[in-house]
Amino acid sequence: MPEASASTWNPLLQAVECGSRHHFRTLASPDRRFPRPEPSPAEKRCDNSNVMKMPLQVAIMAAGEGKRMRSARPKVLHRLAGSPLLSHVLRAVRAIEPRAICVVYGSGGDQVPAAVPGADLIWARQEALLGTGDALKCALQNLPKDGVTLAMIGDIPLIRSETLSRLAAAVDGNKLAVLTATPADPSGLGRIVRDGSGRVRAILEEKDASPEQRTIGEINAGVLAAPTGRFAQWLARLTSDNAQGEYYLTDVVSLAVGDGVPVVAVSASDPMEVQGVNDRAQLAAAERALQRRAAQTLMRDGVTLADPERIDVRGTLSCGKDVAIDINCIFEGAVTLGDSVSIGAHCLLN
């Protein structure tokens, strides 16, 4: 085979047929290297230098059993686009560059820290699953006592770093910031209760809400931020006098109101961004939403997709110029395609 010049060279793909699918691997060229992959949008850093006046730390509550998944695997370890749910949350959290990240785990024991390693992570085990309020208390025992703490659930894999940054900035010294959304169907979710002036007064879990309160469309997205000292004070005053017999983190809202602390609601721009994953149907919906997001990013970057609904990126995909991808292609791991590469239909590249 004659040697290709640098101006005309395209990466060669070696294919091995396996049933009805083809597995490809890229062959390196001796005279041209692949361009360095650009960070994916979810991995790009947020510039918080002008919005955060206090040190920021994050507590991720990932101890839930996930009973509706009907699985022996901890819920946060179910995979989405090739990675555990918790890994997607961590990607968004790391992009806002907190000084510390504490992950609270419980169900599944040491499976969770073993599956999602990270030298920057602090792990705290919640021995008894007594609710999100108790989970945050476990986290605060392992985090600095000052600054701002952003507390969030670990099963919202579509959360964007920009949204977390907006919420943290809304604390503005001495406020409690609550992330909210208005989904088409708020069933099963905690409702945001406002007064006649539109101020947030409380969050009510659906099991504790009246029929009238269940008609409220604005929901709690499971992410709150406040000065760390304030959280510690409120957590010490929580009770388990509710339908679940648990310590609800959401009860800090009514405590803040009683203390005269302003409560600020920050709305997620897209309700799907804060969609929790509680069962297999929600997992599938999150997978499709994440793949649509990846497809839109690829097309904005100049990649031609024969059908944006029929591509799966289960890792990272970096493309050169004039790349075309046919239907039903799957990309696993870190894949790089050079200039003018065309991928045929029904291919698996890893």
Q: In words, what does this structure look like?
A:
With 350 residues, this protein is α/β, with parallel strands linked by helices. It has two domains: 12-33 and 301-349, Hexapeptide repeat proteins (UDP N-Acetylglucosamine Acyltransferase, domain 1, 3 Solenoid), CATH 2.160.10.10; 42-278, Spore Coat Polysaccharide Biosynthesis Protein SpsA, Chain A, CATH 3.90.550. Helix content is 20%, strand content 28%. The protein is built from seven helices and 19 strands. The strands form five sheets. A seven-stranded mixed sheet has the order 7-6-3-8-12-9-13, with helices on both faces. Strands 1-2-19-17-15 form a five-stranded mixed sheet. The chain has a three-stranded parallel sheet with strand order 14-16-18, covered by helices on one side. A hairpin with a 2-residue loop joins strand 4 and strand 5. The longest helix is centred in the C-terminal third of the chain and has 21 residues, at 280-300.
Give the topology, please.
Blueprint lengths: L11 E7 L2 E7 L28 E6 L17 E2 L2 E2 H11 L4 E6 L5 H5 L5 E5 L6 H9 L7 E6 L7 H10 L5 E6 L9 E4 L5 E5 L14 E9 H8 L16 H7 L4 E5 L12 H21 L3 E2 L5 E9 L4 E2 L3 E9 L4 E2 L3 E3 L1
Parallel strand pairs: 2-19, 3-6, 3-8, 6-7, 9-13, 14-16, 15-17, 16-18, 17-19
Antiparallel strand pairs: 1-2, 4-5, 8-12, 9-12, 10-11
